[in-house]
């Protein structure tokens, strides 16, 4: 099915439904929500896209009324036409997540709308997934939020590492559901047991093998990072919620350098790429992207699924900027863990930019910021918050975004304290209007580890070799040639400056 069609056609009006807001406290009374089935909190809208899969969205929340805007967007991006919606405000029901009455209402709505899927805005336990499946018209797929995200990932995976990560996330998602399925069969046939079941064992084995393969990819990446650091590059990673503007910023920061080592080094063929011939020529490198492929930008979730690195000069420093996979609210920890190349790239960076979309409403901004924090909580290095798309909001909107941002940071769990300190004062940036970029470059240069030193060596071949080594790694701030000696001011990565000093100190007079 066409994603575009689904996107343009899934414009079903969201009808906020809070008919049961006040029975949240009576949530144990499963029938309390059964009284007025087909009331205002369900909507039935004709599917407009003939090739999109008709689906009903369901959402429950305990506090604020459910906001289905994001799940609808995700559903549309994954190729569903949302033809109806059921929402409820109450505590979780162990059987259906929704209360029984509301689940029955969902069942009727799905039948009336001939929905082929129910998209559930949240994670359902395996038991809840099966119970809902049993209740719904036969053949209706139950797709909870993590499963929907896996479908989106499957559409976008474009590299060996992304494929592996997707496979791992999928297997980890499937395993408990498979166990539940086997246990259900076992309750009817005592000879079946989940633990010894060959299908369960098979998935466990495939998880191990995917973890191993991903471990090897991660080791390669780490080795490549070490080499690049030795070569004098600072590693800057962009992190943040999906669609925040990370790739746009990475693209803007990247130098237009024609350096075969860093451009499309191992790119997969990609229709978005202008230079397709070159991609083919580079195929032999083995690892398509999660390397140095194109930085695709689009107004859709999970446009980027491969960490991608480009060379850049930021605040005068030679940097490698790594664009990463965006985060999303409501993903289970293990799904996030599967995106190891993203997590590793952010953790290992000398400086991480946390990109937060200034054009979001304050509530969404806070929610997305909190969801993105898992990406950066284990970083050792500094984190610079960036408020992206500043052009979309105007001065008042920007002030509101800064306020929402700072309010959210103050409310953060004190256990995140080291991160919280780093998160003050976001830098507003607009790539579209070219504003804030110089401030950002200055902040990055200030945040990167820097050493300075003065080295002196007798003039001659060895000193010239040391000088050329230091130039190659971008740590020469000034050179002063005397009649006998050369004096060099060094500034840059501490390890590189230390090595340059050693080389000058070792340079014999010729
Ligand atoms: N107005 C405006 N729009 C922007 C700006 N930066 C990015 N965008 C838009 O925001 C959308 C998402 O941008 P991306 O750079 O693809 O976002 P991302 O964070 O890489 O998204 P994923 O890869 O899907 O996680 C695109 O439509 C961009 O054109 C900006 O400075 N101003
Ligand atoms: Mg991106």
Automatic annotation (TrEMBL):
The entry's keywords: GTP-binding, Magnesium, Metal-binding, Nucleotide-binding
Region (Disordered): 1-68, 252-303
Biased composition (Low complexity): 46-59
Cofactor: Mg(2+)
Biased composition (Acidic residues): 24-34, 256-267
Binding residues for Mg(2+): 247, 304
Pfam families: GTP-bdg_N, MMR_HSR1
Gene3D superfamilies, A to Z: GTPase HflX, N-terminal domain, P-loop containing nucleotide triphosphate hydrolases
Binding site for GTP: 240-247, 302-306, 323-326, 430-432
Basic and acidic residues bias spans: 270-281
Ranges that cross the membrane: none
MF-aspect GO terms: GTP binding; metal ion binding; ribosome binding
InterPro entries per UniProt: G_HFLX_dom, GTP-bd, GTPase_HflX, GTPase_HflX_N, GTPase_HflX_N_sf, P-loop_NTPase
CC annotations in GO: cytoplasm
Residue ranges of domain Hflx-type G in the record: 234-452
Protein name as it appears in the record: GTP-binding proten HflX
Species assigned in the record: Halorubrum distributum JCM 9100
